[in-house]
Recover the amino acids of this structure.
Protein backbone atom coordinates (compact mmCIF):
# COMPACT_ATOMS: atom_id res chain seq x y z
CA UNK A 1 0.00 0.00 0.00
CA UNK A 2 1.67 3.20 -1.11
CA UNK A 3 0.67 6.59 0.21
CA UNK A 4 -0.17 9.46 -2.12
CA UNK A 5 2.61 12.02 -2.30
CA UNK A 6 2.35 14.08 0.90
CA UNK A 7 1.85 17.83 0.87
CA UNK A 8 5.08 19.81 1.11
CA UNK A 9 3.30 22.95 2.36
CA UNK A 10 5.31 24.55 5.16
CA UNK A 11 3.60 25.37 8.46
CA UNK A 12 4.84 28.94 8.82
CA UNK A 13 2.23 29.89 11.42
CA UNK A 14 2.70 26.91 13.75
CA UNK A 15 6.03 28.03 15.26
CA UNK A 16 4.36 31.30 16.32
CA UNK A 17 1.41 29.55 18.02
CA UNK A 18 3.75 27.05 19.63
CA UNK A 19 6.12 29.73 20.96
CA UNK A 20 3.15 31.66 22.42
CA UNK A 21 1.85 28.38 23.86
CA UNK A 22 5.21 27.56 25.44
CA UNK A 23 5.71 31.03 26.88
CA UNK A 24 2.11 31.01 28.12
CA UNK A 25 2.66 27.64 29.77
CA UNK A 26 5.49 28.99 31.90
CA UNK A 27 3.43 32.04 32.91
CA UNK A 28 0.40 29.82 33.63
CA UNK A 29 2.46 27.52 35.83
CA UNK A 30 4.57 30.08 37.71
CA UNK A 31 3.15 33.60 37.69
CA UNK A 32 -0.59 32.93 37.73
CA UNK A 33 -0.60 30.72 40.85
CA UNK A 34 1.54 33.32 42.65
CA UNK A 35 -0.93 36.07 41.71
CA UNK A 36 -3.91 33.95 42.79
CA UNK A 37 -2.16 33.11 46.06
CA UNK A 38 -1.50 36.80 46.74
CA UNK A 39 -4.81 38.39 45.70
CA UNK A 40 -7.15 35.38 45.97
CA UNK A 41 -6.00 33.62 49.15
CA UNK A 42 -3.62 35.64 51.35
CA UNK A 43 -5.41 38.99 50.96
CA UNK A 44 -8.97 37.73 51.69
CA UNK A 45 -7.69 35.72 54.67
CA UNK A 46 -6.17 38.89 56.05
CA UNK A 47 -2.68 37.41 56.10
CA UNK A 48 -1.22 40.48 54.39
CA UNK A 49 -0.49 43.81 56.14
CA UNK A 50 -3.65 45.94 56.10
CA UNK A 51 -2.07 48.54 53.83
CA UNK A 52 -0.76 46.01 51.28
CA UNK A 53 -3.79 46.31 49.00
CA UNK A 54 -5.42 49.73 49.04
CA UNK A 55 -7.31 51.41 46.21
CA UNK A 56 -4.58 54.02 45.71
CA UNK A 57 -1.76 51.49 45.65
CA UNK A 58 -3.63 49.20 43.26
CA UNK A 59 -4.48 52.08 40.90
CA UNK A 60 -0.86 53.16 40.85
CA UNK A 61 0.24 49.55 40.34
CA UNK A 62 -2.23 48.58 37.60
CA UNK A 63 -1.97 51.72 35.50
CA UNK A 64 1.79 51.75 35.09
CA UNK A 65 4.20 50.84 32.32
CA UNK A 66 5.57 47.70 34.07
CA UNK A 67 1.96 46.54 34.45
CA UNK A 68 1.63 46.41 30.65
CA UNK A 69 4.33 43.73 30.72
CA UNK A 70 2.67 42.06 33.73
CA UNK A 71 -0.69 41.92 31.91
CA UNK A 72 1.12 40.40 28.93
CA UNK A 73 2.58 37.69 31.17
CA UNK A 74 -0.50 37.14 33.36
CA UNK A 75 -3.31 37.43 30.82
CA UNK A 76 -2.19 37.55 27.17
CA UNK A 77 0.30 34.66 27.09
CA UNK A 78 -1.89 32.31 29.21
CA UNK A 79 -4.78 33.18 26.85
CA UNK A 80 -2.76 31.97 23.86
CA UNK A 81 -1.72 28.91 25.85
CA UNK A 82 -5.37 28.11 26.58
CA UNK A 83 -6.37 28.82 22.97
CA UNK A 84 -3.73 26.33 21.74
CA UNK A 85 -4.98 23.66 24.13
CA UNK A 86 -8.63 24.28 23.22
CA UNK A 87 -7.80 24.09 19.51
CA UNK A 88 -6.04 20.75 19.95
CA UNK A 89 -8.81 19.52 22.25
CA UNK A 90 -11.31 20.22 19.47
CA UNK A 91 -9.03 18.38 17.04
CA UNK A 92 -8.89 15.35 19.37
CA UNK A 93 -12.68 15.36 19.71
CA UNK A 94 -12.96 15.81 15.92
CA UNK A 95 -15.10 18.90 16.34
CA UNK A 96 -15.20 21.51 13.58
CA UNK A 97 -12.48 22.24 11.07
CA UNK A 98 -8.94 22.93 12.32
CA UNK A 99 -8.47 25.87 9.92
CA UNK A 100 -11.57 27.60 11.30
CA UNK A 101 -10.94 26.57 14.92
CA UNK A 102 -7.49 28.11 14.64
CA UNK A 103 -8.85 31.49 13.54
CA UNK A 104 -11.54 31.37 16.23
CA UNK A 105 -9.32 30.33 19.13
CA UNK A 106 -6.26 32.50 18.44
CA UNK A 107 -8.57 35.33 17.32
CA UNK A 108 -10.38 35.19 20.66
CA UNK A 109 -7.07 35.15 22.53
CA UNK A 110 -5.84 38.14 20.49
CA UNK A 111 -9.09 40.04 21.04
CA UNK A 112 -9.11 39.49 24.81
CA UNK A 113 -5.39 40.34 25.01
CA UNK A 114 -6.03 43.55 23.10
CA UNK A 115 -8.90 44.42 25.46
CA UNK A 116 -6.76 43.81 28.57
CA UNK A 117 -3.81 45.81 27.26
CA UNK A 118 -6.11 48.60 26.06
CA UNK A 119 -7.65 48.95 29.51
CA UNK A 120 -4.22 49.51 31.03
CA UNK A 121 -3.15 51.82 28.23
CA UNK A 122 -6.35 53.88 28.61
CA UNK A 123 -5.77 54.16 32.37
CA UNK A 124 -2.20 55.31 31.75
CA UNK A 125 -3.33 57.95 29.26
CA UNK A 126 -6.25 59.37 31.24
CA UNK B 1 3.10 -24.35 35.93
CA UNK B 2 -0.29 -22.64 35.79
CA UNK B 3 -2.69 -22.10 32.93
CA UNK B 4 -3.49 -18.68 31.54
CA UNK B 5 -6.35 -17.49 29.33
CA UNK B 6 -5.43 -15.73 26.13
CA UNK B 7 -8.11 -14.07 23.96
CA UNK B 8 -6.75 -13.28 20.54
CA UNK B 9 -8.47 -11.11 17.94
CA UNK B 10 -8.52 -13.27 14.83
CA UNK B 11 -8.89 -11.93 11.31
CA UNK B 12 -8.79 -14.33 8.38
CA UNK B 13 -9.78 -12.26 5.35
CA UNK B 14 -9.92 -15.30 3.04
CA UNK B 15 -12.68 -16.79 5.24
CA UNK B 16 -14.52 -13.87 6.76
CA UNK B 17 -14.29 -10.07 6.47
CA UNK B 18 -15.17 -9.66 10.16
CA UNK B 19 -12.70 -10.19 12.98
CA UNK B 20 -13.61 -12.28 16.02
CA UNK B 21 -12.19 -13.21 19.41
CA UNK B 22 -10.80 -16.67 20.04
CA UNK B 23 -9.88 -17.93 23.50
CA UNK B 24 -6.93 -20.24 24.22
CA UNK B 25 -5.56 -21.74 27.44
CA UNK B 26 -1.78 -21.80 27.61
CA UNK B 27 0.57 -23.22 30.27
CA UNK B 28 2.73 -20.54 31.85
CA UNK B 29 5.40 -20.16 34.49
CA UNK B 30 7.48 -17.18 35.62
CA UNK B 31 9.65 -17.29 32.50
CA UNK B 32 6.85 -17.45 29.91
CA UNK B 33 6.83 -14.47 27.59
CA UNK B 34 3.81 -13.49 25.54
CA UNK B 35 5.72 -14.62 22.45
CA UNK B 36 6.28 -18.05 24.08
CA UNK B 37 2.53 -18.21 24.71
CA UNK B 38 1.78 -17.38 21.06
CA UNK B 39 4.26 -20.06 19.97
CA UNK B 40 2.43 -22.56 22.18
CA UNK B 41 -0.89 -21.65 20.57
CA UNK B 42 0.59 -21.94 17.07
CA UNK B 43 2.42 -25.23 17.69
CA UNK B 44 0.04 -27.08 20.03
CA UNK B 45 -3.44 -25.61 19.69
CA UNK B 46 -4.12 -23.81 16.43
CA UNK B 47 -1.71 -23.73 13.50
CA UNK B 48 -3.86 -21.18 11.62
CA UNK B 49 -2.78 -18.35 13.95
CA UNK B 50 -0.50 -15.81 12.23
CA UNK B 51 1.88 -13.38 13.93
CA UNK B 52 5.27 -11.85 13.21
CA UNK B 53 8.38 -12.56 15.22
CA UNK B 54 12.08 -13.12 14.70
CA UNK B 55 14.75 -12.41 17.30
CA UNK B 56 13.03 -13.11 20.69
CA UNK B 57 15.25 -10.46 22.32
CA UNK B 58 13.74 -7.03 21.58
CA UNK B 59 16.12 -6.24 18.75
CA UNK B 60 14.16 -6.97 15.57
CA UNK B 61 10.96 -5.11 16.50
CA UNK B 62 8.69 -7.64 14.77
CA UNK B 63 6.44 -8.98 17.53
CA UNK B 64 4.53 -5.84 18.54
CA UNK B 65 0.91 -6.48 19.55
CA UNK B 66 -1.75 -4.78 21.68
CA UNK B 67 -1.91 -6.39 25.13
CA UNK B 68 -5.10 -5.34 26.94
CA UNK B 69 -5.07 -2.19 24.79
CA UNK B 70 -1.41 -1.26 25.33
CA UNK B 71 1.17 -1.73 22.56
CA UNK B 72 3.97 -4.07 23.68
CA UNK B 73 6.63 -6.35 22.26
CA UNK B 74 5.59 -10.00 22.72
CA UNK B 75 9.14 -11.08 23.54
CA UNK B 76 9.70 -8.40 26.17
CA UNK B 77 6.34 -8.94 27.88
CA UNK B 78 6.07 -11.65 30.50
CA UNK B 79 2.78 -13.23 31.54
CA UNK B 80 3.83 -13.02 35.21
CA UNK B 81 3.56 -9.21 35.00
CA UNK B 82 0.09 -9.20 33.42
CA UNK B 83 -3.47 -9.69 34.69
CA UNK B 84 -4.94 -13.19 34.39
CA UNK B 85 -7.20 -12.41 31.43
CA UNK B 86 -5.28 -11.27 28.37
CA UNK B 87 -6.71 -9.70 25.25
CA UNK B 88 -4.24 -9.73 22.37
CA UNK B 89 -4.91 -7.63 19.26
CA UNK B 90 -2.91 -6.47 16.25
CA UNK B 91 -1.13 -3.10 16.65
CA UNK B 92 -3.63 -0.23 16.61
CA UNK B 93 -3.77 2.44 13.87
CA UNK B 94 -2.34 0.13 11.18
CA UNK B 95 -4.34 -1.81 8.58
CA UNK B 96 -4.56 -5.47 9.60
CA UNK B 97 -3.38 -8.02 7.03
CA UNK B 98 -4.20 -11.19 8.96
CA UNK B 99 -4.63 -12.08 12.66
CA UNK B 100 -1.86 -10.21 14.52
CA UNK B 101 -0.01 -9.10 11.38
CA UNK B 102 -0.34 -5.45 10.38
CA UNK B 103 0.66 -3.61 7.22
CA UNK B 104 3.40 -1.15 8.26
CA UNK B 105 3.86 0.49 4.85
CA UNK B 106 2.54 3.84 6.14
CA UNK B 107 5.26 3.92 8.79
CA UNK B 108 7.94 2.88 6.30
CA UNK B 109 6.83 5.63 3.87
CA UNK B 110 7.05 8.21 6.67
CA UNK B 111 10.44 6.85 7.66
CA UNK B 112 11.77 7.16 4.10
CA UNK B 113 10.41 10.73 3.88
CA UNK B 114 12.71 12.00 6.66
CA UNK B 115 15.88 10.56 5.05
CA UNK B 116 17.02 8.52 8.09
CA UNK B 117 20.64 8.08 7.03
CA UNK B 118 23.86 10.10 7.08
CA UNK B 119 23.97 12.67 4.29
CA UNK B 120 27.33 14.13 3.35
CA UNK B 121 27.79 17.46 1.62
CA UNK B 122 31.09 16.58 0.02
CA UNK B 123 31.07 14.01 -2.76
CA UNK B 124 32.18 10.62 -1.48
CA UNK B 125 35.53 9.72 -3.03
CA UNK B 126 36.68 6.21 -3.80
CA UNK B 127 37.72 4.30 -0.71
CA UNK B 128 41.47 3.95 -0.40
CA UNK B 129 42.33 1.11 2.02
CA UNK B 130 45.88 2.43 2.32
CA UNK B 131 44.73 5.80 3.63
CA UNK B 132 41.27 5.43 5.17
CA UNK B 133 39.65 8.67 6.34
CA UNK B 134 37.31 7.74 9.17
CA UNK B 135 34.62 10.07 10.47
CA UNK B 136 35.84 11.09 13.88
CA UNK B 137 33.32 11.70 16.64
CA UNK B 138 33.92 12.62 20.26
CA UNK B 139 32.01 10.86 23.08
CA UNK B 140 30.13 14.12 23.69
CA UNK B 141 29.04 14.27 20.03
CA UNK B 142 27.90 10.66 20.26
CA UNK B 143 25.98 11.33 23.48
CA UNK B 144 23.85 14.00 21.75
CA UNK B 145 22.00 11.50 19.55
CA UNK B 146 22.75 8.08 21.03
CA UNK B 147 19.46 7.64 22.88
CA UNK B 148 17.48 8.36 19.70
CA UNK B 149 19.59 5.86 17.74
CA UNK B 150 18.22 2.93 19.77
CA UNK B 151 14.99 2.79 17.73
CA UNK B 152 14.22 -0.69 16.36
CA UNK B 153 11.31 0.41 14.12
CA UNK B 154 8.80 -1.76 15.98
CA UNK B 155 5.98 0.74 15.47
CA UNK B 156 4.67 0.58 19.06
CA UNK B 157 4.84 4.37 19.28
CA UNK B 158 2.55 4.69 16.25
CA UNK B 159 -0.03 2.47 17.94
CA UNK B 160 0.28 4.60 21.08
CA UNK B 161 -0.05 7.94 19.27
CA UNK B 162 -3.63 9.26 19.17
CA UNK B 163 -2.65 11.88 16.59
CA UNK B 164 -1.38 9.22 14.19
CA UNK B 165 -4.66 7.39 14.81
CA UNK B 166 -6.59 10.49 13.79
CA UNK B 167 -4.40 11.37 10.82
CA UNK B 168 -2.14 8.72 9.24
CA UNK B 169 -0.47 11.48 7.21
CA UNK B 170 1.25 12.59 10.45
CA UNK B 171 4.90 11.52 10.17
CA UNK B 172 4.61 10.06 13.67
CA UNK B 173 6.94 9.60 16.65
CA UNK B 174 9.30 6.96 15.24
CA UNK B 175 10.15 8.75 11.99
CA UNK B 176 10.45 12.13 13.74
CA UNK B 177 12.74 10.66 16.42
CA UNK B 178 15.02 9.22 13.73
CA UNK B 179 15.01 12.49 11.80
CA UNK B 180 16.11 14.20 15.02
CA UNK B 181 18.75 11.52 15.59
CA UNK B 182 20.39 12.27 12.21
CA UNK B 183 19.97 16.04 12.61
CA UNK B 184 21.95 15.78 15.86
CA UNK B 185 24.75 13.70 14.35
CA UNK B 186 27.98 15.66 13.87
CA UNK B 187 28.79 13.61 10.74
CA UNK B 188 25.54 14.53 9.03
CA UNK B 189 24.80 17.55 6.86
CA UNK B 190 21.29 16.61 5.75
CA UNK B 191 19.37 18.86 8.14
CA UNK B 192 18.53 21.34 5.39
CA UNK B 193 16.88 18.54 3.42
CA UNK B 194 14.96 17.20 6.44
CA UNK B 195 13.62 20.43 7.96
CA UNK B 196 11.09 21.20 5.16
CA UNK B 197 9.63 17.71 5.75
CA UNK B 198 9.48 18.21 9.53
CA UNK B 199 8.13 21.76 9.39
CA UNK B 200 4.76 20.77 7.90
CA UNK B 201 1.41 20.42 9.63
CA UNK B 202 1.89 16.68 9.17
CA UNK B 203 5.44 16.98 10.54
CA UNK B 204 6.35 17.92 14.11
CA UNK B 205 3.35 20.28 14.42
CA UNK B 206 0.77 17.48 14.53
CA UNK B 207 2.22 16.30 17.84
CA UNK B 208 0.22 17.46 20.88
CA UNK B 209 2.71 16.03 23.40
CA UNK B 210 0.53 13.26 24.74
CA UNK B 211 3.76 11.41 25.57
CA UNK B 212 2.34 7.87 25.42
CA UNK B 213 4.84 7.04 22.64
CA UNK B 214 7.70 7.43 25.13
CA UNK B 215 5.93 5.29 27.72
CA UNK B 216 5.47 2.31 25.40
CA UNK B 217 8.87 2.51 23.67
CA UNK B 218 10.66 -0.77 24.50
CA UNK B 219 14.11 0.80 23.89
CA UNK B 220 13.57 4.01 25.93
CA UNK B 221 14.17 6.19 22.89
CA UNK B 222 11.81 8.89 24.25
CA UNK B 223 10.35 9.90 20.88
CA UNK B 224 8.16 12.55 22.56
CA UNK B 225 11.31 14.42 23.61
CA UNK B 226 12.75 14.09 20.11
CA UNK B 227 9.57 15.42 18.49
CA UNK B 228 9.37 18.37 20.85
CA UNK B 229 13.06 19.20 20.41
CA UNK B 230 12.20 18.98 16.71
CA UNK B 231 9.62 21.73 17.26
CA UNK B 232 12.36 24.03 18.55
CA UNK B 233 14.44 23.20 15.45
CA UNK B 234 11.42 23.73 13.15
CA UNK B 235 10.73 27.11 14.81
CA UNK B 236 14.38 28.12 14.28
CA UNK B 237 14.19 26.89 10.68
CA UNK B 238 11.09 29.03 10.08
CA UNK B 239 12.68 32.15 11.62
CA UNK B 240 15.82 31.73 9.52
CA UNK B 241 13.68 31.17 6.39
CA UNK B 242 11.72 34.36 7.14
CA UNK B 243 14.86 36.47 7.51
CA UNK B 244 16.46 35.01 4.42
CA UNK B 245 13.23 35.72 2.51
Amino acid sequence: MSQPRPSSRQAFDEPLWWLLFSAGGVCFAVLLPATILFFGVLAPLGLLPSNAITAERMTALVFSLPDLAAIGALICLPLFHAAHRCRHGLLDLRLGNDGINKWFMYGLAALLSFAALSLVALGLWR
Amino acid sequence: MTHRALSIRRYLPDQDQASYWQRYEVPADDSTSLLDALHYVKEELDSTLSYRWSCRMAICGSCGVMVNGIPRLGCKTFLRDLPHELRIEPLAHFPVARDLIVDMDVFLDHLAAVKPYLIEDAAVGTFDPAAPTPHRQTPAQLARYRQFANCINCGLCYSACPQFGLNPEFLGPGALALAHRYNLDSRDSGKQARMPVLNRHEGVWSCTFVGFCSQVCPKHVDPAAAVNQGKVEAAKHTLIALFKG
User: Anything to note?
Assistant: Chain B has two domains: 2-102, 105-244. Residues 2-102 of chain B form a domain with the Ubiquitin-like (UB roll) fold (CATH 3.10.20.30).
